[in-house]
Amino acid sequence: MWGINGESCLLKLHDFPLIQRLVQDPMHILLEGVVPHDMSLLLYKVAFVAQLCTEKELNLLITGFPYSYLHVHSVPVPLDKGSI
Length: 84
Fold this sequence. Notes:
The protein has 84 residues and is mostly helical. It has three helices and no strands.
């Protein structure tokens, strides 16, 4: 139903490099890779290196955030220094 599930009609075009000409998908590149990694580094530095807030305060913000019904299954777990 989703994703690439058949041959592209662009393959019928002569000299069309399919992989080089298609637009990248920023959701998969950023939201499933770069952003979570950078956010974990930022939270680590805020809570444990610079000590701008305590681990308890940060966990209260994470668990108390009003997530939408779309995110109830992907709510982040509380921050733990050992898991970073």
